[in-house]
Amino acid sequence: xxxxxxxxxxxxxxxxxxxxxxxxxxxxxxxxxxxxxxxxxxxxxxxxxxxxxxxxxxxxxxxxxxxxxxxxxxxxxxxxxxxxxxxxxxxxxxxxxxxxxxxxxxxxxxxxxxxxxxxxxxxxxxxxxxxxxxxxxxxxxxxxxxxxxxxxxxxxxxxxxx
Length: 162
What we know:
Elements: E1 5-7, H1 12-20, H2 22-25, E2 37-39, E3 56-60, E4 63-67, H3 70-78, H4 80-84, E5 89-91, E6 93-94, E7 99-100, E8 109-113, E9 116-120, H5 126-131, H6 137-149
Parallel strand pairs: 2-4, 5-9
Antiparallel strand pairs: 1-2, 3-4, 6-7, 8-9
């Protein structure tokens, strides 16, 4: 999974190549109508949504986007670029609960703040964050600083402040 998009592979060798250089494989494909990956969220609501549970889908720039409602698909299709933008910076960290989010699939939803995508741990965390994101800026900064100190490849786990 990269930036909230799940990629599937034909064999373990392809997966290893992908893991070494994901950016090489996640760019916009020549045929933008074919999906190379599946977004793990409804991009309109930003809530986690398994593609199998989607009421509708759209393919944009080689990614399949699932929607909880036909209305969400219609909204997306009118302006896909605005909803399909994936910031280069992201945090698998919920500043409300001060918890590390294990992976994209474990996130309940996300919010974009100051050019960074913040993945939330549970459905109750997005609303307070969206109401006052600057209130959580210090927690985000502290988590980034702690993460930067870890050895390459090591991910923080559990409560971020501990």
